[in-house]
Amino acid sequence: MPVATSKSGLKDEFDINTNSRSKNRKNNRELDADFQHDRLDLRDSEEQQKIDSSLNILFNQSKDELFSLTSGYKKFQRELKSWKLITNRDEITFERLAQARIFISVGPQKKFQSNEIEALKRYIAHHNGSIFIMLSEGGEAKLNTNLNFFLEEFGINVNNDSIIRTTFYKYFNPKEALIPDGVLNRALSDMAGKNFDIYGEKSEQTSQSLQFVYPFGSTLNVQKPATPLLSSGSICFPIKRPLCAIYGCSSSTGSNSFGFKKSSQGKICVLGSSYMFHDSYIDKEENRKLLEVLIKYLTDDNCYLDQIDSEDPDINEYNDIPNIINISERVKTCLQDSEEIPRDLTKLFDDELFALDLKNLPKVIRGFTDLKIKHEPLPLISPQFETPLPPLKPAIYPPRFYEPEAPLLELFDLDEHFSSENARLAQLTNKCSDEDLEFYVRECGEILGVTRHLQQKERDAKGILAYIASRILEYKCLNVNS
């Protein structure tokens, strides 16, 4: 049975419900405001972390690299003073890579683990990071690393060779290769501040816009989607082979053929020489300017490459040549190894190729009858020469034998040793003048044998004349006595 209620009771119950509803709405608005505030704080912290990570460079030292920031790459660190360089000596993980904008490895001498390679791939694909790898001569075989396993997926492979310069200029070591014509993409010239029209036709001015030193480096194999940037040029060997390549900088195909497609993927730059930016070579030629260009390509999404040069770079195929030094140490005869000689030596003769017999003579005689030709001996036709033939001589040249060199004799005057005294005195008289009286008297004394009768201090003109006068006086005295 329903309970009867008064109007005043219903009114009080309605007021209570209304107050509770308003209080709940107020609490919900406060909770929403707190949630929005926490969300904004989280977004600010993520943006701040992203800004901080975009100014960091992770310099790897976990693979026993050839050089470090304190040994060999001090000027490299000074060049990147606007960046914060962090040294990594632990295992490479995605969380550690996400803290930096660029990951740099200079000549790793240990192999990368599978989880580290996966972290690098994830860093490229999802974090829009950049990787800068430098190796040296001999490739990964000499450094005992496995970077090609990671780079082959992106169209880059480092060869196990070295670059040498074929002609000497400035640098004495041939492996310190000075390359004056190694630029493959004309956009590099524009990035380096060279006054070059990137919309013009490609010419020698493109490759010669940047001159750099490439010491102790190797060559690369580059395929799509990677693009070669530098080559060995026409002076170094191997000729026109890629030295530096980049992945992630594909040019657009629209009306603006020099722009980039915006991509969420990162970039990879591979250089075949770790010594190029070493403290000893970074100030040589234009290596420092080339470093600035490569860092800008890795960090700036608005950089571009020339589409024509990217599609058709001026490089040659990689041709292997024999190792002449190794072959010279294993000299072999030019004859092939023969089969075992049979006991019956007559089996070694092959009569089927060349033979002198009469087995085909019956066929030839029957041919006369078939052709209805008279069988008779052939007449001798005497030749009639219009002009006589010149005598034939073999077309050879006599050998030229080198004559032995003349014996090593001292230089001496034959006239001085074999001429008579009168002839030598006549030659001396014709050669001297009145001013050479002192010399004339001494030489006459030498020719006549007077000086050998005098002491060393008396062998002057006065002593020679005094000796001759005394001899004449002695001669006259002897004649008076007689």
Number of strands: 13
Measured between the Cα atoms of the first and last residue, the distance is 205 Å
Mean pLDDT level = 80
Largest sheet: 7 strands, mixed
Strand content: 5-15%
- Main-sheet strand order equals 2-1-3-4-13-12-10
Shape: flat
Helix/strand structural class: alpha/beta
Low-confidence stretches: 1-8, 40-51, 252-263
Which helices and strands occur, and which strands form pairs?
Blueprint lengths: L6 H47 L2 E5 L13 H6 L4 E5 L5 H4 L4 E5 L7 H12 L4 E5 L4 H5 L3 H5 L4 E3 L5 E2 L10 E4 L7 H5 L12 H4 L4 E4 L4 E3 L4 E5 L4 E2 L4 E6 L19 E5 L15 H13 L7 H5 L12 H5 L32 H11 L42 H5 L2 H11 L5 H11 L13 H21 L1
Parallel strand pairs: 1-2, 1-3, 3-4, 4-13
Antiparallel strand pairs: 5-9, 6-11, 7-8, 10-12, 12-13
Helix pairs in contact: 14-15
Task: Write a concise keyword list for the protein shown above.
alpha/beta; seven-stranded mixed β-sheet; about 10% strand; 13 strands; about 475 residues
